[in-house]
Amino acid sequence: MRHLIMQGENLTAPPSNNGSSHTNISAPLPSDINPTESNMSMNTDQDSNLMESDFPQKRRGGWPKGRKRRRGPRDMNAPKQPLTGYVRYLNENREKVRGENPGASFSEVTKILACDWSKLGSHEKQKYLEEAEKDKERYMKELEQYQQTEAYKIFKKQQEKKRKEYEDGDGSYYTSSTVEPMNETQHDGEVPGFDIPIFTEEFLDHNKAREAELRQLRKSNTEYEEQNAILTKHIENMKSAIEKLEVENSQQHSNNIALQQHLEALRNALLENFADFPLPSTNELPTPETIDSYMNQLHSLLENPTENEVFISKIREIVSKLDYP
Fold it and tell me: In which residue ranges is the amino acid composition biased (Basic residues) (predicted)?
């Protein structure tokens, strides 16, 4: 194109030597170099294709839009997965931080722990990291042994059967191995309020620990509700028993008052009838203070009727005339 343009420039006449006005004698440009609309469109498309080929767009990772990730069946016989050093630090210090901050919520406690973990030195973290490494070695060893068992083979068959059912149902089966992982920029994101990078093993372990704690709290809450229901029923029974005892106590109190009044009336009647009847041995006469002892001695004399026959006959005569209240 540059060569053709230079040819067009050569067709222009140079200025005359006599200083007269310039006269440009221009030959028409060839039709193949005219900047027509079709040529401009073609050049634009070529440039666009060149840019797209030289700078391919990076495909965004993650799950396809509109698709929900299907969680495969969980193998209950598989060995317990290892915990990271960070999760071990959380589990070990959560109760301590919660005790120091009784009004803090779960997320606030976790945020404090995450901040403390980020401030720990490498030598302080080493203990938790070493334990995590040992636990990981234990898990890998147990997993290798478990994969040789019949239970694992049965689980794999069931998993394969489930996968085929999903493929027959909607034509796709999404697992972590069939979908492109999130790109690096998405991996570098962080949860607001936490110092834990998201989409990492540490973040997933943190979620597992939180879910386990929530399950434990729900279980404890259910147990407490059952205990409260039992205690409420027990309290109601106790209230009913107390009300019943109060009614009985009131009745007994009324009976005691009536008996006391009857006893006083009986004492007065005995005192009045035996006022001039002294005991044969002591010549003691009854008084309001000694009427009880007087009647006891009188009763002892009745046990020997032969010795006090005359006295006893007088007593019987008085008692027969006695007007009981």
Answer: 58-72
Q: Residue 288 corresponds to which tokens in the numbers above?
A: 């309001």
- Give 254: exposed, middle or buried? Use CB within 10 Å, 0-12, 13-18, 19+: exposed
3-state secondary structure of 1: coil
- Contacts of residue 51, defined as CB under 8 A and 6 or more positions apart, other chains included, come to none
Q: What is the pLDDT of residues 220-270, one digit of tens each?
A: 899 899 899 999 999 999 999 999 999 999 999 999 999 999 989 888 888
**Helices 291-301 and 201-273, packing angle to 10 deg:** 70
Q: How far apart are CA 204 and CA 198, in angstroms?
A: 8
d(CA 243, CA 155): 63
Q: State which amino acid sits at residue 115.
A: C
With b meaning 16 or more CB within 10 Å and e meaning fewer, what string describes 117-147?
Answer: beeeeeeebeebeebbeebeeebeeeeeebe
Distance CA 142, CA 77 (A): 11
